[in-house]
Design goal:
Oligomer: single chain
Radius of gyration: 19 Å
Shape: globular
Largest sheet: 5 strands, parallel
Distance between the termini: 40 Å
Strand order of the largest sheet: 4-3-5-6-7
Number of strands: 7
Helix content: 25-40%
Length: 199
């Protein structure tokens, strides 16, 4: 159809949604915006971590109710942050977390990380930031076994790609209290459908 196309550029880093067979087979170069959103996504991850550590939802609910309530919050200093997908976004998230005194633990798949090693690493983390790209190896990387390996007080933050996490497994882990919470910037279907359980 578009015989005069010379170049295709994706505004996002992930290109999996636009890789149709004709584009793959054509000589037209495909580029992406890798790294453009690293600062914004790293800040989102830190905001999500602070949201849970300082129980900001409870703080706002108390304010809206006009209720004075003292409650304990968690210090981030010394907490372990696992980062799965240690590219530009993961490294920037780690840099910001390190400035807050968190122990940053990169979880790198290219070093031959097995499912057992991943689960072992997850068991040490207070927070897990997922910034991995979507590949055949990373699709459904986080399922029931991975959530079962996490601490009950752990929080997962996905700023990578939605299908890296099996949504049904995450919903079950949240509904049962198997993990403390999740902050999601990406989903399997975007925009998130009305009345989706993630709401």
């Amino acid at each position: 159809l578009a015989h005069r196309v010379r170049w295709v550029h994706s505004l996002s880093a992930g290109v999996d949604k636009i890789l149709f067979p004709e584009l793959i087979e054509s000589p037209v170069p495909l580029t992406n915006s890798r790294g453009v959103f690293k600062d914004a996504l790293a800040e989102f991850a830190i905001a999500a971590i602070l949201f849970f550590a300082k129980d900001l939802r409870r703080l706002v609910q108390n304010q809206e109710a006009g209720r004075w309530e003292q409650f304990d919050v968690v210090m981030l200093r010394g907490q372990v942050l696992g980062i799965v997908g240690y590219g530009e976004i993961g490294r920037e998230t780690g840099r910001l977390a390190g400035a807050l005194g968190m122990q940053v633990m990169p979880v790198r798949r290219q070093s031959g990380l097995s499912k057992d090693k991943l689960r072992e690493a997850l068991g040490k983390c207070d927070y897990v930031v997922v910034s991995a790209p979507l590949t055949p190896d990373t699709r459904d990387m986080f399922g029931e076994a991975e959530f079962n390996a996490m601490k009950r007080t752990a929080v997962i933050v996905n700023i990578g790609r939605g299908p890296v996490i099996t949504e049904s497994a995450l919903i079950a882990a949240l509904a049962s209290g198997r993990i403390r919470g999740a902050a999601l910037d990406v989903y399997n279907v975007e925009p998130l459908p009305t009345n989706h359980l993630f709401y």
